[in-house]
Amino acid sequence: MTTNSENSDEQLNQKKDEVKQEFKGFYSAFKTFLTDLLNIREETDKELTITKIKAGIPVRSHNAWVLVFSIFIASIGLNVSSTAVVIGAMLVSPLMGPILGLGLSIGINDIDTLRRSLVNLGVMVGLSISTSFLFFSIPLFQEATPEIIARTAPDVRDVLIALAGGLAIILAFSRKSEMTTTISGVAIATALMPPLCTAGFGLATWNLDYFFGALFLFVINAIFIALATFVVVKFLRFPMVKYINQAKRKRIAQIAGITATLIIGFSIYQFYLLFQENQYHRCATTFIEQLQEKTGAGIINSNIDYNSKTIKIVVLGTNIDENQKKIWSNRMEEFNIPNSSLIIQQDDKASILQDEINTIKNSYIKNQNLIASKDEIIQQKNALIIEKDRTLQKLRKQQIPFLQISQEAKILYKGLQKMSYATKVETNFSKVDTLIVFETQWKDSINNRLEMKQQLSEWLKTRLNNFNIEVKGNLK
């Protein structure tokens, strides 16, 4: 028994070891698969990437004119709210070069490239804003279209798009075989040009809120694209620029490190601020919707100001009294919008006006019902008139032109001395018949009165097209 038990334990341990080995093999294979799938080091050409990014930094000659014309096209697209035109302009824009140069130069401690990138980026921004300013200075093109308004303030989603776009474009640049479609797609997604065009629009129309909001959106996009480039460059361990002077190398490394820290810190801070603002707007919108649903207030407009923590609503119709206002002001903390002010603009006369409108509306409905009722009565009377007319026509058809008939009968029947007629209704209790009865009186000199009476009867039936005719008279 002991030997059998030991054998069973040994077999069980052996199976456990086999399972462990199989699991280790599976884990190793899965790890190898993931490594091969996500490894970007092998396909990276660092020297070529640095060369390509540096070549795209300068703005001069052809690049400058391409930038001017692309900004001009984008401005037209924003003015007519044509997304397709704006996308076409972004595809040919060379704005991405200096921004990638910023991230690269900080990542490899290249102070000369950093200086060149900053100068060329400043030139590009100046050219872009100047071109759009000249276009929007024409009064015909100064309408604030939805496409322009959409580029007047950054959103937390813009930050995420810029960060993801920057990561995608530096990875596309770092491949040995360049991914042209990826670069084009990122140029569209990050949307660097429309904010600069909107900034030019703000200057041309003296709307400084538009100008600073759009410029801030561009700065946020540019910083996060540069930050993504810096992160990838550091991750892939691009070769650092070496300087002969040890003190200079150390100073440049310090400058690059401080610059990178400031950019990362500023980016995180701005992301936090934008996230907070986005959350505030979302919670405030929910608060307004609940207030309108619970109070029945006719909110026709609302304005949410994150900076002053103010929610302003305009009410028309059903007013919000002071008690309701106090209750909802106290409930703002429940909606994660504490320390905020609720401003309600409403007119006491609005309720009176609404009551008058409702009175007029009810009066109109009553009048419409009355008109509909009269129309129904008129239709019934018209139907009755039509029926009476049909009966009258029928009676007219049944009426006998007695004077004319009697004159004709006198001519045809010389012995006829007197003639009269009447309508007789008779029944055999199964049906009712209407008979036309003619009373005749013949001259005494007429011997064949019966024959004459039969002839007269046939003639009358034919003449009047009626077989319900009966002729009576003195036949003896």
CATH architecture of the largest domain: Up-down Bundle
> What kind of sheet is the major sheet?
3 strands, mixed
Helix content: 55-70%
How much beta, percentage-wise?
5-15%
Poorly predicted runs are: none
Terminal residue distance: 153 Å
- How many domains make up the 3D coordinates? 4
Question: Total number of helical segments?
Answer: 16
What name does the CATH topology of the largest domain carry? Glycerol uptake facilitator protein
Structural class: mainly alpha
- Gross morphology: elongated
The first-level CATH class of the largest domain is given as Mainly Alpha
Structural commentary:
The chain has 16 helices and 6 strands. The chain has helices spanning 2-38, 46-55, 62-79, 83-92, 96-107, 111-136, 146-149, 156-174, 180-190, 193-204, 208-235, 246-295, 322-330, 348-398, 402-412, 449-464; strands at 299-305, 310-315, 341-345, 416-427, 432-442, 469-473. Helix 8 runs antiparallel to helix 9 (180-190), helix 8 crosses helix 11 (208-235) and helix 10 (193-204) packs antiparallel against helix 11 (208-235). The mean pLDDT is 76. A 3-stranded mixed sheet has the order 1-2-3, covered by helices on one side. Strands 4-5-6 form a 3-stranded mixed sheet. The protein is mainly alpha-helical. 68% of the residues lie in helices and 10% in strands.
